[in-house]
Design goal:
By secondary structure, the chain is mainly alpha-helical. The protein is 71% helix and 0% strand.
Length: 644
């Protein structure tokens, strides 16, 4: 046989053989490379497209709207005084909401984790509701509550000031929510809730021994708190500040509802103004403005990643860590009063205004006596619910929103599980890049993400996707990936690699081990994360603004259009129905989790038994029942031992 015979046999498939051999030798690295390429296309390409779009007059490549390559949009934006005024407004709004928000978050986190304050559950529930409610709906409720003429706040204040004299329902002021003051207050409430939910974990894990050492040294309570607690928690607080700053600078829903009517523009709303020009959308100028915001957000993300890397070295506690509480003493009742007032102002009053508007015959209806409330002609009514539920267009809008949001949320959860699983396969720089790729959409606001996707689609061979629900779902999927990562990351770290290895040793493939072990163990956390992503995808406004179809709009677009048209009752009723929908889905998810838990517990074998004939074999369900019955009978039998 010739010496080169083996070479001849391998030559036709030489390239494929080398690829297969490389895959078998280093499968973990190759899986990470493959997933990294997909993540690069999904998460990085929109940001690159925004940069490219700043040097093009339009992303269209053909037709009457075809654009050309030019630096004119870039020069026009960066030489315009309006751009820098908008940047200043963005900085002012972000600082003015994040700084008081972090103080409120630290105050309430300290109350909940370190004191014997009353009604701690009310604080956490208030913060959770504010974070769960989409920002568009929260801004709309405040717009109704603080309406200058017929908002409940102004009506009640005028009534108290005039002794509820005749005509107090009508007038103007004294509160104007569509102003700098209203914009800062509403943004502060949301920022404080977001930061509280992140800080409550680090605050609850603090070791009381540090405080005791400071007190023994002669320091007072206030000096102890600011001298030991805050410095130790400073890395976590700083990281939360950076994350909240990113979220504040890319906020769109609250500024467009409360800021634009007062002629207050920030960078995201400035981008929307360029794109929503009545004559012709200025895509190049919008992309150029987006670059300013994108550079700032990327710098903040890099800073947050460094702070997050240092945070794990702040303090070390163990089972012996003491978690004592401070006794508030005489301050317990005043603190309870502060908690109740904050909950009422931040959540109670806006939700009450929402319910009143949805059941009122018209926006601004205020009964002067109790008989008007139950008047069948001029009292509370359900006609707005009947109008929506009897309209096929409204029903289709809810169904379409639910379908698109559910698909985007499910895709986001699955993608995050796969990425985090790939990160655990093989530590290194590639794993770190994969881990960081999930947070890239966090620094690309929804409006910029939609603009980047439009540019990618129109400049590439996928023009047929423009305006389709598939493109909208893809954008929502990319937008919810950072949120899905936050909800899944903690759970997947707790899954030991030995379980997957045992499955593979038993003969299963790597893909089967992923689905049989990782997905199954993560199912409860995945269901919770899916619900949160579903709520966010259903209520977001920025992405459907550019990628949605106005003839069959998403829920957020329809609610915003009703608000602009003055149909406040329809907008409020749609929100109430959406809340009911979320509660039903949350109940179904809780039922599924309980069924899964019960099914798992039934399959669990008995570890030990007092039965002398037990050999260690797994007992069936009837046998377990008989064993438990014998145990109960034995425990009830009278003792035969004689007492001395």
């Amino acid at each position: 046989m010739p010496n080169d015979a083996p070479m001849t046999r391998e030559q036709p498939g030489g390239f494929l053989v080398r690829i297969r051999r490389s895959w078998n030798l280093r499968p973990e690295r190759n899986i990470q490379i493959l997933i990294g390429i997909v993540a690069l296309l999904l998460f990085v390409s929109p940001a690159v497209a925004v940069f490219v779009g700043a040097f093009r007059t339009s992303p269209f490549t053909e037709g009457p709207q075809a654009g050309t390559w030019s630096i004119e949009p870039f020069v026009e934006v960066f030489t315009s005084p309006g751009t820098w005024e908008t940047l200043w407004n963005t900085v002012l709004l972000t600082v003015g909401s994040v700084v008081p928000g972090i103080l409120i978050a630290i105050f309430f986190a300290t109350l909940v984790t370190r004191t014997n304050a009353l009604a701690k559950w009310l604080i956490t529930m208030t913060m959770a509701i504010m974070v769960a409610v989409p920002p568009l709906f929260y801004a709309l409720t405040w717009s109704m509550l603080g309406n200058e003429t017929v908002g409940l706040l102004n009506v009640w204040i005028r009534g108290i000031a005039t002794g509820f004299a005749e005509g107090y329902q009508w007038g103007s002021g004294p509160i104007d929510i569509e102003s700098w003051g209203g914009l800062l207050v509403v943004s502060t409430f949301r920022a404080a809730a977001f930061m509280y939910l992140i800080l409550v974990g680090p605050f609850s894990s603090m070791d009381r021994s540090l405080e005791e050492a400071a007190r023994v040294s002669g320091a007072g309570p206030v000096r102890t708190f600011f001298g030991t607690q805050i410095p130790v928690l400073m890395p976590a607080i700083t990281a939360v500040l950076v994350i909240s700053t990113v979220a504040g600078m890319e906020a769109f829903d609250v500024p467009i509802v409360l800021g634009v009517p007062a002629d207050i523009y920030v960078l995201p709303t400035e981008v929307y103004r360029y794109l929503n020009d009545a004559r012709n959308p200025f895509y190049g100028q919008a992309s150029a403005v987006s670059l300013v915001l994108l550079v700032i957000l990327v710098a903040l993300l890099i800073l947050e990643r460094r702070l997050q890397g240092r945070r794990r070295f702040t303090t070390v506690t163990g089972k012996g860590a003491r978690q004592g509480q401070w006794a508030l003493g005489a301050w317990r009742l005043p603190v309870l009063l502060i908690t109740i007032v904050y909950a009422l102002v931040a959540v109670g009053l806006p939700l009450f205004q929402l319910l009143v508007v949805s059941f009122s015959p018209y926006f601004g209806w205020h009964p002067t006596d109790l008989s008007m409330i139950f008047d069948p002609q001029a009292g509370l009514t359900t006609k707005w619910f009947e109008t929506i539920l009897s309209s096929q267009a409204h029903v289709n809008m809810f169904l379409q929103t639910a379908a698109v949001a559910a698909a985007a949320a499910a895709a986001g959860i699955i993608a995050v599980i796969i990425i985090l699983w790939a990160v655990k396969l093989r530590p290194g720089r590639l794993a770190n890049l994969l881990d960081a790729s999930q947070m890239l959409p966090f620094v690309v606001p929804g409006l910029l993400l939609a603009l980047g996707i439009i540019t990618v689609v129109l400049l590439g061979p996928w023009k047929g996707l423009y305006g389709s629900p598939i493109l909208l779902m893809l954008a929502l999927f990319i937008a919810v990936v950072p949120l899905a990562s936050r909800t899944i990351a903690g759970a997947i770290v707790q899954i030991p690699a030995e379980l997957e290895e045992a499955t593979r040793v038993s003969g299963s493939s790597r893909a089967r081990a992923l689905f049989a072990v990782v997905f199954r163990l993560l199912l409860p956390s995945a269901l919770n994360g899916w619900l949160l992503c579903f709520v966010v995808a259903s209520g977001t406004l920025a992405i459907p603004m550019l990628l949605g179809e106005r003839r069959s709009p998403m829920l957020a677009i329809k609610v915003y259009d009703d608000y602009l048209a003055g149909n406040f009752s329809l907008a409020a009723t749609s929100f109430v129905l959406f809340v009911a929908e979320v509660l039903v889905i949350a109940g179904a998810i809780e039922l599924i989790k309980r069924l899964l838990s019960r099914r798992t517990s039934r399959r669990r074998p008995v570890a030990e038994s007092t039965d002398p004939d037990w050999t260690g074999a797994v007992l069936t369900r009837p046998k377990r029942a008989r064993v438990r019955k014998l145990h109960r009978l034995a425990s009830r039998a009278p003792s035969t031992q004689k007492t001395p």
